[in-house]
Amino acid sequence: MNPHPDLTVGVIQGLGWLYLLLFFANAAWTAYSFKNDGYYEKLFGIRHLPKAVMWASYTGGLLALAITHLTVGANADEFTLKLPDWFKKAADTVIADPKSFFGLSIAIYVAIILLRDWWVKPAVAWILFNLSVLFIAVSMTDFDFRQIVGKPDNVPILGMLYLVGFTTWLYFYKSKDNDKRIAEGRPLHEKELSDQVLVWPDLVYTEMICMILLTALLIVWGVVLQAPLEEPASAVKTPNPSKAPWYFLGLQEMLVYFDPWMAGVVLPSVILGGLMAIPYIDFNTKGNGYYTFNERKFAVSTFLFGFLPLWVGMIVLGTFIRGPNWNMFGLYEYWDSHKLEVLNNVNVSDYFWLTLLELPLPKPDPQAGFISQAATILLREWIGILLILFYLLAIPPLLAVTVFKNFFVKMGFIRFMVMANLFLLMASLPLKMLLRWVFNLKYIVSIPEWVLNI
């Protein structure tokens, strides 16, 4: 008997209940579409056909799919509604490669910005939601995917992704409406919400209903999902992989590319300081108190780049992709603890002295004085230090006279330099990741004698 079958009767019937819930959700959407979407002039030779007929057909297919799963026989091996192996291999090839994974996250970010007028349409957003649920449901027929995504620790992360998707959609949906109103000279949507409600009873009743629903959800959650408790901690047996809580997985991923002092101290401090500095460096008075994108393009795009690919993407990577020995695994790949990837990471000084000049690295004499040692270290790392200084000191003025010229004029020297350096520090993460993947570059400046690595 296979101890790790892709399909069991319990899994198939569980997916049946999921399809049944999706059926009810789409039945409600069909009723909404019938009420609001109107009729086709002519479709398949039939005139005056409701546009909701397409949703009704899809909803009927979901019901048939649910019945098929719920009435499955005892032999689960003969069930054919599962992912083909060629799709699993193709998906694993893309997901397990850090370059393609990050490229995919960047592509999603760009699509969110450029296609915002299309995907915020309720029908399109509902289609994307259905596709995502169907993808997860069909992927659950794979044993390894089920072990990763269905882990009690990881289920909240999956729910968080849907919440991030919904709130992002809600922002762009309201922004599109307000941007259209501004272009047409009409009052903002927020200005038309002039009706006032009382704390009692309106707000209190709403909060009470939300509290009851959330309490019921947590009770069901606690009954259905087992608590993710493990054996008592032991110094002689550590988990592999050993992961931080989900909200620190972004920082843990940064440790792959930066030294601990940089990833755990400097960059988080810069993030907090940058968030506090935003009200003082922001010169755009528009967009306060109402949703808009056209009036806050740079601010919103920069925030979303830091939030989606560089934070949410890193959480997804650390939760579902990073496996034993911190290697990357595909969604349908077995987490083999014996998988080892040979990485020959080198520093900029290695490239310069060993590869380009074909000379040995200058090494400071431990018996020499501090000045002599420092001179040798600076000689070894001079090109890396020069690159860092150019990045932090020379690029901001270049930006001020080129792409960010208007920003410099409106912000002034000090505010612009603060903004530019915050922007460059944020960009340092994807740049360092790219350098690691393409050139196996570990450090730009490596001074282990002073515990200083950049």
TrEMBL record:
It comes from the Bacteria. One of its GO terms (molecular function) is oxidoreductase activity. The chain crosses the membrane at residues 12-32, 53-74, 94-116, 123-143, 155-173, 203-224, 261-281, 302-321, 382-404, 416-439. Keywords: Membrane, Transmembrane, Transmembrane helix. Gene3D superfamilies: Cytochrome Bc1 Complex, Chain C. GO terms for cellular component: membrane. InterPro entries: Cyt_b/b6_C_sf, Cytb/b6-like_sf. This is Uncharacterized protein. It comes from Thalassoglobus polymorphus.
